[in-house]
């Protein structure tokens, strides 16, 4: 009976939907996390009576026809790149991006990754790195004698060196943006890689046209709305239950048919 397979595809789709929602909820406190959602498509249809087919020699046609769908499939799990809330941390190397853009991160294998996670640190050489020790590009080194580090909205890093009275420019943290940021490939550790779908990275200074600005001592929170996620979870559970009832109903119908004497 076709209904068994159709309902099974619905259960599998809702199972994946719950997995996506659970990942969003699990990362609701992850810095710079961008939530995903599951998009679905209907499967191929069996045309039992094709609309538009001729029904007589006088030119009358079938107005609607008869098509039986084959169920549902998952089409994509796009990432929603909307702005997350900004939270004050009072840590001088925490930086939030307000608007479009990603920090550039040099991976150990030489590739460049991109992140919205601005919880930065200094390594043993004074270089600004991520919490995993990956260098933020362009590389900026803060001297040991530096104090009162400041980072303005355009990413200019300044510090008072030693007994100097004025601040010294140490470098500028630039940003990268993409035509299609949802096409970036997530690799974990709050990092993304460029893909053909995302388009090439466009590097620029924060605050320039199309780029966001930076905010020192703040971090961007995940853009996960707990109330919305729980509502979606309940809806997915109900859809899963209804598909399971279809399977039960189809099984009972098959049992009735097999018991006919």
TrEMBL record:
Domain Flagellar basal-body/hook protein C-terminal residue range list: 216-260
| Biological processes per GO annotation | bacterial-type flagellum-dependent swarming motility
Q: Where is the Flagellar hook protein FlgE/F/G-like D1 domain?
A: 96-159
Q: Where in the cell is it found?
A: Bacterial flagellum basal body
User: One GO cellular component from the entry?
Assistant: bacterial-type flagellum basal body, distal rod
* Domain Flagellar basal body rod protein N-terminal stretches: 5-34
Which domain of life does the protein's organism represent? Bacteria
Q: What range does the record give for the signal peptide?
A: none
User: Record keywords: Transferase included?
Assistant: no
Task: Name the UniProt key words of this record, in alphabetical order.
Answer: Bacterial flagellum, Cell projection, Cilium, Flagellum
* Keyword Metal-binding (UniProt): no
Family affiliation: Belongs to the flagella basal body rod proteins family.
The UniProt subunit note reads as follows: The basal body constitutes a major portion of the flagellar organelle and consists of four rings (L,P,S, and M) mounted on a central rod. The rod consists of about 26 subunits of FlgG in the distal portion, and FlgB, FlgC and FlgF are thought to build up the proximal portion of the rod with about 6 subunits each.
The name this protein goes by in its record: Flagellar basal-body rod protein FlgG
């Amino acid at each position: 009976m076709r209904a068994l397979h159709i309902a099974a595809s619905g259960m599998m789709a809702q199972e994946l939907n719950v997995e996506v929602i659970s990942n969003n909820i699990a990362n609701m406190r992850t810095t710079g996390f961008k939530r995903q959602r599951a998009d679905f498509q209907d499967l191929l249809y069996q045309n039992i009576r094709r609309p538009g087919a001729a029904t007589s020699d006088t030119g009358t046609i079938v107005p609607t026809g008869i098509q039986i769908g084959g169920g549902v499939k998952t089409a994509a799990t796009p990432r929603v790149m909307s702005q997350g809330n900004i939270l004050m941390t009072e840590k001088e190397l925490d930086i939030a991006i307000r608007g479009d853009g990603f920090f550039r991160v040099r991976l150990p294998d030489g590739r460049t990754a991109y992140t919205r996670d601005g919880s930065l640190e200094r390594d043993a050489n004074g270089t600004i790195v991520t919490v995993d020790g990956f260098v933020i590009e362009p590389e900026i080194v803060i001297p040991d004698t530096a104090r009162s580090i400041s980072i303005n909205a355009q990413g200019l890093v300044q510090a008072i060196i030693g007994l100097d009275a004025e601040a010294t420019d140490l470098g500028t943290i630039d940003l990268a943006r993409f035509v299609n940021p949802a096409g970036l490939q997530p690799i974990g550790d709050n990092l993304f890689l460029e893909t053909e779908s995302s388009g090439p990275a466009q590097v620029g200074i924060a605050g320039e046209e199309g780029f966001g600005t930076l905010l020192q001592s703040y971090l961007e929170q995940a853009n996960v709305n707990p109330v919305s996620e729980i509502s979606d979870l309940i809806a997915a559970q109900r859809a899963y239950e209804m598909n399971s009832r279809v399977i039960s109903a189809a099984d009972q119908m098959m049992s009735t048919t097999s018991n006919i004497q």
